[in-house]
């Protein structure tokens, strides 16, 4: 029953939610994707073999909210990792504003090179939340995404960033904010469940206070430069226990045997 709670709540006030959603989209400030190269090398001063990392996701991976990819999550996460590991991190971002997981399977994954990387960050959920994707469809899409990423990139580790707590976004009016918060929470719980089934997947909750205006861009919806940096610190701390220090070989759990629903 709990996994269907967002749908049950939404049904009772559906016409009002539709009207609020349309008005919110109409009035929302639309920010562009980041400019500049969507790849780079962080920690170049460290004398060690670079760790390779791919970031795949929605608008946050595309750097919406900041002016350049250097300020977005790919670069910031790579820098936070390089600082902790004392090891360079070579990163590349594949993001698309407005993308759901299903969109990524069609539009982003074909662009990802078929070669090994050490680490993959997946960041989705906001657009699947606003699309009111069912939990069962979300889990199927995420599981297919994990399977395709594993086959194309053979990563040692996959990090799945938690779905943002949309109930904390003041830019959304009530009761739309409340219902979107319920939906985001239900999708995030399913991400945790998927990750728990594999030693090679790590779910990292997005434990940031999104009511702090300093963490949000001028649209009140996407991260600011400070928001991306704070998010990167969370990811780096979570990943640190599973990543080797400088000079050590990368020996992490195999990604085979991931559940496909």
UniProtKB/TrEMBL annotation:
Boundaries of every SGNH hydrolase-type esterase domain copy: 55-229
InterPro entries referenced in this protein's UniProt entry, alphabetically: Ester_Hydrolysis_Enzymes (IPR051532), SGNH_hydro (IPR013830), SGNH_hydro_sf (IPR036514)
UniProt keyword terms in alphabetical order: Hydrolase
CDD domains: FeeA_FeeB_like
Record Gene3D superfamilies: SGNH hydrolase
Keyword Protein transport included in the entry's annotation: no
A Pfam match: Lipase_GDSL_2
Gene Ontology terms for molecular function: hydrolase activity
Record's keyword annotation contains Hydrolase: yes
UniProt protein name: SGNH/GDSL hydrolase family protein
Taxonomic lineage: Bacteria, Pseudomonadati, Pseudomonadota, Betaproteobacteria, Burkholderiales
């Amino acid at each position: 029953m709990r996994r269907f709670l967002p749908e049950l709540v939404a049904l009772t006030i559906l016409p009002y939610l539709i009207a609020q959603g349309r008005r919110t989209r109409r009035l929302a400030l639309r920010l562009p994707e980041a400019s500049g190269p969507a790849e780079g090398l962080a920690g170049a001063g460290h004398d060690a073999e670079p760790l390779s990392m791919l970031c795949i996701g929605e608008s946050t991976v595309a750097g919406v909210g900041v002016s350049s990819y250097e300020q977005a999550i790919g670069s910031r996460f790579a820098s936070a990792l390089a600082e902790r590991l004392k090891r360079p991190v070579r990163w590349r971002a594949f993001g698309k504003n407005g993308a759901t997981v299903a969109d990524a399977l069609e539009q982003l994954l074909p662009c990802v090179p078929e070669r090994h990387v050490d680490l993959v960050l997946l960041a989705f959920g906001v657009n699947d939340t606003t699309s009111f994707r069912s939990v069962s469809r979300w889990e199927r899409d995420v599981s297919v995404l994990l399977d395709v990423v594993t086959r194309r990139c053979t990563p040692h580790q996959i990090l799945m960033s938690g779905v943002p707590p949309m109930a904390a976004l003041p830019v959304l009016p009530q009761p739309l904010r409340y219902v979107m918060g319920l939906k985001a929470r239900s999708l995030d719980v399913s991400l945790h469940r998927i990750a728990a089934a594999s030693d090679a997947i790590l779910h990292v909750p997005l434990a940031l206070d999104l009511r702090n205006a300093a963490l949000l861009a001028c649209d009140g919806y996407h991260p600011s430069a400070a928001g991306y940096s704070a998010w990167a610190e969370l990811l780096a701390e979570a990943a640190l226990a599973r990543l080797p220090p400088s000079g050590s070989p990368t020996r992490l759990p195999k990604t085979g045997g991931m559940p496909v629903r």
